[in-house]
Design a protein that fits this description.
341 residues, alpha+beta, D-amino Acid Aminotransferase, Chain A, domain 1, D-amino Acid Aminotransferase, Chain A, domain 2, 9-stranded antiparallel β-sheet, 7 helices, binds pyridoxal-5'-phosphate
Amino acid sequence: MEKKDIDWGNLGFGYVSTDYRYVSNYKAGAWDGGQLTQDANIVLNECAGVLQYAQTVFEGLKAYTTEDGHIVTFRPDLNAERMEKSAARLEMPVFPCDRFVKAVSEVVAANAAYVPPYGSGATLYVRPYMFGSNPVIGVKPADEYQFRIFCTPVGPYFKGGAKPLTIRVSDFDRAAPHGTGHIKAGLNYAMSLHAIVTAHEEGYDENMYLDPSTRTKVEETGGANFLFVTKDGKVVTPKSDSILPSITRRSLVHVAKEYLGLAVEEREVFLDEVKDFAECGLCGTAAVISPVGKIVDHGREICLPSGMEEMGPVTRKLYDTLTGIQMGRIQAPEGWIHVIL
Ligand SMILES: *Cc1c(COP(=O)(O)O)cnc(C)c1O
């Protein structure tokens, strides 16, 4: 298969249309068989449920080329399970796990020419999503839905090394107690846009959101979970019902325990104790781990001992081990690597 003529190393993180996308429609209580299409556009009624009441959920994962030349995805079954939970919370029909994984494989295989070569640092980002498609004006769930997956090639997340981020403690909340913080829904992002735009205007890379009820505990950023390292080398990650359960964070916890022999605590993390940590990172599919060098809480600067030049040593080990597993350089736990081609 001939690869597309793309400058993989200089791709950004933006939408690039590929040849195929996957579509399945839900009507009269059932999903159809689904198919690939070359049409990137969706025609919707003006009153579609997604447009009026934001009934939509999504997922994000990557397809990439391993050292031995296979095209694979990383734990797509966990994306499938998470999307089932997201859909159920928004009263949307569930797209079955096995069909989800099959559809991801189909659409990635069809776009194999867009999967960046091993070593380029680039990946094919895969975006499954679902939305209410029929007209809904009274507030209620739609009766018809569309499940789609598109792919877009994205560049290396860290060009020229991972520079530690500066983040601020946000005065906005991203999730309400007993709300939707734990599901991957567009609505959580719509209301985070103002917070991130103002953070950028003030010179910060990201927002640290606190728990919405007491505003004393660390939750997550707009799109990544926190991972801290104590001065004696323990990995600590916040536990809360309103955090989105990151697959990267869950995988890193396993890697910390089983590959690196580190102690891991999944527990409430108070903002007050952040000053005592040695390292801090943000985990998510896009970057795996982005190091954090500085956290600013209303003018009070918390400078992590790992500094503003590079990843802390434990963060680095976690990053190298997980990316090694993903790329096929290190033996993966059973079921983590899903081979497509
Ligand atoms: C998607 C997402 C993450 C990261 O999850 P991964 O499964 O690791 O990609 C973290 N926080 C939020 C709010 C997210 O939407």
